[in-house]
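Example 3.2
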Amino acid sequence: MRTIRVSLLIAVVTLLAILAVSRPGASPQDRVDMQIVRYTELGKRIKDLRGRVIVVDFWADYCPPCKREFPKLVAMHRRYSDDGLTAISVSLDDAADAEAVERVRLFLSAQRASFANYMLNEKPEVWQVKLKIDGPPCVFIFIRRGELVKKFHDDVDYREIEQLAADLLKQD
């Protein structure tokens, strides 16, 4: 019975999120999408963005600080995307868990995260080694040449992240 209620709740919230995104007058930039990728594919997509300042936010639905700070990533994207900033969110939730995937999609829709959103299709043992972190939150900032300039882990402060990104946008 509990499973049916949870499934019904997910279905209702999904419908509401779809209606919110597909509302009349919604622009294509309001569209929210998420793709499930492997670590190597994520790296390739980041490399393809050379020439832009890139802020990559590694987060998870089970991480309250991640979800609390996420609106700041969305606001930063809106404020600086025309100046050369690209925001990317990467969920570290379990891509094999259909309910987790749905929760992530719903959260992204509710946040109107209309930039590139990915979910890593890797076990924690893999991404922990590759990213050199135990878990989220974690934010990487890449300069226009595609080099990692700073990694914020555990103590993620979006005031500092935004200031650094704004400074980097002024550089060639």
